[in-house]
Amino acid sequence: MVESAISEPNKVKGYKSIGIQVDSSTPAKTMYRKTWIVLLLILLLTCAAAEAIALLLISNKCDVTHTTRASVTDTLNTIPACVYRGVQYTQGQKWEDACDYICECIDGQYRCFNRCATFTNLPSSCVLRIDPRDPCCKIPFCSFNPVTTEATNLNHKPGITTSTGLNSYFRNKNLCVLGSRGKEFLVLFTPDDKVGDLITKNVYITSENGAEMNISTSQRLDPNLKSQIDRIENISSVVHVVFPNAFELKSFKKEMKSAIIKTSQDVFVISHDDGIDTVGSTTHIPLHKLSTKYLVVSIKNKADEKSQMAIASIQDGTVITIKFHMEHNMPLLIEGKTYHEGDRFTLNLDCFETYLIEHTSDLTGTAIESSHPIAVFSGNDCAELDSYGACDHLVEQLPPITSVDTTYIVPPNSDNRDTLIRITAIVDSNFTYTIDRVSKMVKLKRLESFRIEIDSRQTCVVESDHSIFVTSFGLHSKTSNMGDPSMTIVPGIHQYLDYYKIVVPSGYNHNYVSIMMKQFSTKFLRINGNVLNVTDMFFEGNVVVGQETYTVRSINLPEGEISVYTTQGDRFGLMFAGVTDYEAYGFSGNSLLP
């Protein structure tokens, strides 16, 4: 890797949004409202049709549905092409999909954005007309006689306008782009060898409007264990499920130790594996976003600590090939055979079947490919990353390499905790990182990693010419007992969403969320329906990404469920964290491209 300096120029339940005020007292305005309702129905039918077609095309051997995003014709050694609607596009190529989208092929992943802007919360004095610069799009034309309307719903605070089904559409302006939300998820639990059975395996499922939930395990699982897990419940807003400790994986052993969560509506799912002075948390990825190619991310260990990677299959007869990336002088023994750097290990897994690999070497850069989509988790059994504090369990469900971004904003941690940032290249990459307006360029070879460290008052911007993994590791406080290592996959700016509903775990001195969003959008942010209370904010800073200014804010949160959204539908990134004595957790709101 080559580095060079560059100078740079000087608990409230129920989401409510601020919606469009529609006066139906005139025929024109009545027709206006009907037009939006028709548009909403068309969008919902389009999404439903796409899902129905996918269900017809895929195998359902394990009672698990799955769709794939795009055909990728490469291996990890080359820059792949993209296939979109049966047409192949080369790296960097851009195209238009009628009047709907503008797309680009980047590292085998097509990225499509709405061709036209969506205007929400238009006052009644505005109408949409054809844009003279682009006949595919419409833009608002307004007469400047704005009318302010105040909510009168007694269940809400004065000045907060209540939402209707129509207005919910405008907040979710692209209902088919859900990020980490979905209807089917896989959960498993990697072991923390320092704690043993003194741990609680929590899963939190949050729904915006309620849902039915079914948790199922393999028919081949021990009946006593299966009876403790399988269930059907209704989710009114949030459900907390505790899994038995015996469901934890054991290394180098095929086991039926994964569970499938199915819901009738889209939900968020996080797991929180909480022990004494240790915890591992992750945001889970819906099954329809799983794929067949992954890259392991962990961290360098001390002598008695181990890197981990766990694999779970969602289809019978899945063939998995693992190409190890590890220290040359630290071979790995699996089932009586020794594996070295660059060696390949192959195994077959059926639906619900899992396999855990542990090694005292850092396994970052290990490549995994499979014949059918799989779920992959990685981290460390208990990692100690600096000379302060002790070790902590680390775990993250990994996004497929086709869902990884190129541009990231990494916020700081609280309580005088430094942040270690690890950047891992999927292919040969050139990236620039910027801290305190000073930029440096780094060249990384495929599968190489580079580490940066920032303090609790700094933010780092990372911009790459190819997709890269960016992982944030919070460290122990330098001035108190707060925290220990935590691991979070950083969301890229193209992975931001406009709405999140997630549970903030209990039992921590400080829970907080870091919010990364465009500066002009900050006034539209709402937390549990309220404008941000500045007294809850303990960090704020601005950074420049390309030509855009982003604001980074870290905000103290109460425990319990939390809804965060923007009234205008603007997208933003979230990273949650919490600390107590010698323990810390971290997870992101989303780690997937749309």
Distance between the termini: 31 Å
Number of DSSP E strands: 40
Tell me the strand percentage band: over 45%
Number of domains: 2
Supply the helix-strand structural class.
mainly beta
Note the overall shape. globular
Percentage of residues in helical conformation: under 10%
Taking all Cα atoms into account, the compactness measure Rg is: 24 Å
**Helical element count?**
3
- Mean pLDDT across residues: 82
Characterize the biggest β-sheet. Answer: 7 strands, antiparallel
Any low-confidence stretches, pLDDT <50, length ≥5?
3-33, 50-61, 64-76, 143-176
Protein architecture, described:
By secondary structure, the chain is mostly beta strands. It has two domains: 27-171, no CATH class; 182-588, no CATH class. The chain has three helices and 40 strands. Strands 9, 10, 11, 12, 13, 14 and 15 form a seven-stranded antiparallel sheet that branches. Strands 16, 17, 18, 21, 22, 23 and 24 form a seven-stranded antiparallel sheet that branches.
Concise structural overview:
The chain is globular. Mean pLDDT is 82; it is low at 3-33, 50-61, 64-76 and 143-176. The protein has three helices and 40 strands.
